[in-house]
Design a protein that fits this description.
Helix content is 18%, strand content 41%. By secondary structure, the protein is α+β, with helices and mostly antiparallel strands. The strands form 4 sheets. Strands 2-8-7-4-5 form a 5-stranded mixed beta sheet, with no helix packed on it. A hairpin with a 3-residue loop joins strand 13 and strand 14. The relative contact order is 0.12. It is a single-pass type I membrane protein. This is TMIG1 protein. GO terms for molecular function: cell adhesion molecule binding.
Length: 250
């Protein structure tokens, strides 16, 4: 009887498997974005919108598509999800640089194509600043500028290349920040310093007018406080010593 029950159970399982259709296989399915079937980089510039079009290939049925910007899913309208889906980035700005847009098959997210935006733009740097610094103090001049491709920076003094002294000048540079530090400024450091940022797409400048002022006299604060305390105590002792005469007068 045990063998019969086991055979009956297997028979019922087999019948259920026959009745339940297998999910369609995604083998052979492909996606393409702007006619690219593999991940790619798209170079563009600031301003004009760009369109990304995702298309299902080798499919015999309706396939739902999903779009992602980085890790966040992009909202799509109902008529823009099946077999072909389009998104538009408008306007293109600096924050889109380096962002990955991915089109995925809804039922098998391993089927996907990604595009990385390479947004190119020149450095945006201008203006001027005046700094008053006391002699023998330290000062730092800071330029902040973004660009793609990354720009090269040169520091000028009074329109000439700045001669750097290892013991007094220090340069610091990242992709967005350029700094010039001067230790213990002297009167000879007076002048106009220019941060010149150059890239293949354009240049930018920022001027710093450095005015080195005379050292301010340093008052011996502790000595002054001590003198005031001594004078105050002397006056108090004098009053105490002469209190009898003061009372007689009154």
């Amino acid at each position: 009887p045990g063998e019969v029950s086991r055979a009956a159970f297997l028979g019922r399982v087999w019948l259920r498997m026959l009745k339940c259709p297998y999910p369609p296989s995604s083998a052979g399915l492909e996606l393409s974005v702007n006619d690219h079937a593999a991940d790619f980089t798209l170079s563009t510039e600031l301003g004009p919108p760009i369109s990304l079009s995702c298309l299902v290939r080798n499919s015999s049925q309706a396939e739902e598509l999903l779009w992602y910007r980085g890790d966040g899913q992009v909202g799509l309208k109902d008529g823009n999800k099946v077999n072909i889906s389009n998104i538009c980035i408008s306007p293109v700005n600096e924050s889109d640089n380096g962002v990955t847009f991915t089109c995925r098959l809804a039922r098998d997210k391993s089927v996907q194509v990604s595009v990385i935006l390479d947004v190119q733009f020149p450095p945006r740097l201008s203006g001027e600043e005046t700094l008053h610094v006391e002699e023998d103090k330290d000062v730092t001049l800071t330029c902040s500028s973004k660009s793609n491709p990354q720009a090269q920076t040169t520091w000028l003094k009074d329109s000439h290349s700045l001669t750097l002294q290892q013991s007094r000048h220090e340069l610091y540079q990242t992709s967005e920040v350029f700094r010039l530090s001067i230790r213990k400024v002297q009167k000879s450091d007076n002048g106009t310093y220019t941060c010149l940022v150059e890239s293949p797409l354009g240049n930018g400048t920022r001027h710093f007018h450095l005015i080195v002022e005379d050292k301010k006299p340093v008052f011996p604060t502790e000595a002054i406080i001590a003198a005031v305390v001594v004078v105050t105590i002397t006056i108090l002792f004098g009053i105490v010593a002469r209190k009898d005469k003061i009372f007689k007068v009154w």
